[in-house]
Amino acid sequence: MADSVAAGLGDENETENEDKEKEKRLFSGVKKTEKQAAASDVTETLGFYERKAKCKERKSNVSDLSLVRFISAELTRGYFLEHNEAKYTERRERVYTCLRIPKELEKLMIFGFFLCLDVFLYVFTLLPLRVLLALIRLLTLPCCGLGGSRILQPAQVCDVLKGFIMVLCYFMMHYVDYSMMYHLIRGQSVIKLYIIYNMLEVADRLFSSFGQDILDALYWTATEPKERKRAHIGVIPHFFMAVLYVFLHAILIMVQATTLNVAFNSHNKSLLTIMMSNNFVEIKGSVFKKFEKNNLFQMSNSDIKERFTNYTLLLIVCLRNMEQFSWNPDHLWVLFPDVCMVIASEIAVDVVKHAFITKFNDITADVYSEYRASLAFDLVSSRQKNAYTDYSDSVSRRMGFIPLPLALLLIRVVTSSVKIQGSLSIVCVVLFYLGMITLKVLNSIVLLGKSCMYVKEANMEEKLFQNPPSAAPSRVSSRANRTKHTREPPGEPAEEGMSASVTTQPTQRDECPAPQLPTSESDQFLTTPDESEDKSLIQDDTELKHRAPKKDLLEIDRFTICGNRID
Q: Disordered: where is this region (predicted)?
């Protein structure tokens, strides 16, 4: 009995032990599956966690991605500009260049303005005296005898021709009624006057470009050596062509002055505002074009000529208005705000235009010093012993400013506005003329001194003693002659000082050697390569490439004054 009871207890214990072992096995299996699942959840593939691990991390980092933390990160985020030092240095230099443009540009404009003023005063002061001296020499020639091969020197012949042109055109201008022209223009609509004014500006540039060619042809035809073969139509046809040109150009400028006068006298000033806005349209037409240094030099010369012409037109408008109001000084203060507004808009447009042109084309502000030196070189070279042209003609070629039509119009307006009656009026006219001569002489002395200083600073003294460069008769012949290398006779030795050569008179040369382009080291100071000539030229037999010569600023004239291209 006891054995059976003990056996039963043992069986129960075994069953309990088996149940416990089964529970342990199940519990251990569950733990293993949980560990394997956890291990599978945190497996890495190429350094990144699986989706479940990422979700867990996102849940754990939700507290870190707060709005305050984002704002603080934006407020404390930093960077280092020195990592791109060259870029920011270039931007700073561009800003400094734009800030220097107004100062350097106005230096050039002021110098060019006084150059134009010197040429303009020459027509009223020294030109009549030179014509008078030439006529005295011509009249006293039978008494004194023929001392040389020429009756008159070439410069005297040109002066006499200029004097005759001015006298003939002055009498022709008396047949033009200024009052009728004023009322005819005033009766037109505003938009029509705006179109007319724009057309007049274009026509003025075309007249200036072609007019100096007519005058140069006349001067050369009248002074050409007689032993050469005649290849012209004669002096008289050229003279009448020059008279017709000066007369038509003077009428054109008169219409411009009349249109500006109508704009000043309009009640609502709408025409004046539209004409001023035309200057800002010029910015759009020039700023976004490609400019080289030579192109900018042409534009600068054109701006100088335009500014001086506008000032003269404003003077004519003021004279006509003061005459209508019986020279009442109170009316001058009525015109003064409009005059200042026109001048200020002209200066502002020039500054903005040149500032952005230099910025977009990577041109430094020092280029205006080179332009000033080039203009100064023209003044100094016209006083040299081997001068080949008068200074007034040199300025006309360089800037497109021809003083004869503008001076003719001013004489016509002054003589019609101011009445000379009595001996006191004659004395006032004589004193005024002497004052103009004094102003001309002082202006010339100051300009000559400044020009010598600018030429010396630019190291251009060597060019003063070289033969003047002459352009080829055509572009085709000039391209054909580039492949030929001929030795030309050297120019005059630079033994004389510049101060001595400035005051000496030009002498006639018996032999005229072929013109030689400047080849000194100073040429590189004022030259830029021409893209159309940078292409290599191949000879037919030797297959050698030659680089075309660079264009010098001293060779840039008004031929391309209306455009931005240099052929």
A: 1-38, 465-543
The DSSP result for 162-213, as a single string, is HHHHHHHHHHHHTTS-HHHHHHHHHTS-HHHHHHHHHHHHHHHHHHHHHHHH
209 CB burial (10 A radius; 0-12, 13-18, 19+) = middle
Tell me which residue has tokens 């192109």: 295
- 412-449: string of b/e by CB count within 10 Å (b at 16+)? bbeeebeeeeeeeeeeeeeeeeeeeeeebeebbeebbe
Question: Tokens in use for 410?
Answer: 């001013």
Distance in angstroms (rounded) separating the CA atoms of residues 405 and 452: 30
Torsion of CA 222, 226, 228, 232, to 10 degrees: 40
Task: Identify any residues that bridge with 552 across adjacent strands, giving them in sequence order.
Answer: 527
Q: How many CA atoms lie within 13 A of 56 on its CB side?
A: 7
Per-residue tokens: 487: 């030795």
pTM of the model: 0.71
Strand-pair partners of 527: 552
The span from the CA of 440 to the CA of 432, in Å, is 12
φ, ψ of residue 112 in degrees (nearest 5): -65, -35
Given a contact cutoff of 8 angstroms between Cβ atoms, the answer to whether 257 and 327 are in contact is no
Q: What DSSP assignment string belongs to 521-562?
A: GGGGGGEE--GGG-S-EE-TTT--EEPPPPEEGGG--GGGTT
Residuewise pLDDT in 10s, the chain (567 residues): 445 544 554 555 666 666 666 666 655 554 555 545 444 444 444 444 456 566 666 655 555 668 888 888 888 888 888 888 888 888 888 888 888 899 999 999 999 999 999 999 999 999 999 999 988 888 887 666 555 567 788 888 899 999 999 999 999 998 888 888 888 888 888 788 888 888 888 898 888 888 888 998 898 888 887 766 666 678 899 999 999 999 999 999 999 999 888 888 877 677 677 777 777 777 777 777 888 888 899 889 989 999 999 999 999 999 888 888 888 888 888 888 888 988 988 898 899 899 888 888 888 888 999 999 999 988 888 877 767 777 777 777 788 889 999 999 999 999 888 888 888 888 999 999 999 999 999 999 999 999 999 998 888 877 776 665 554 444 444 444 444 444 444 444 433 444 444 444 455 544 444 444 444 333 444 444 444 444 443 444 444 444 444 455 655 554 444 444 443
Q: Exposed, middle or buried, 178 (CB in 10 Å: 0-12/13-18/19+)?
A: middle
d(CA 338, CA 147) in angstroms, rounded, equals: 59
Other CB atoms closer than 10 Å to residue 367's CB: what's the count? 19
Instruction: List the structure tokens of 486.
Output: 């001929």
- Report yes or no: 116 and 399 within 8 Å, Cβ to Cβ: yes
Q: What is the CA 290 to chain-centroid distance, rounded?
A: 12
Closest CA to 257 of 329, 309, 307, 187: 309
User: Tokens 């001023």 label which residue?
Assistant: 276
Q: Which two tokens stand for residue 556?
A: 């840039």
Length of the chain: 567
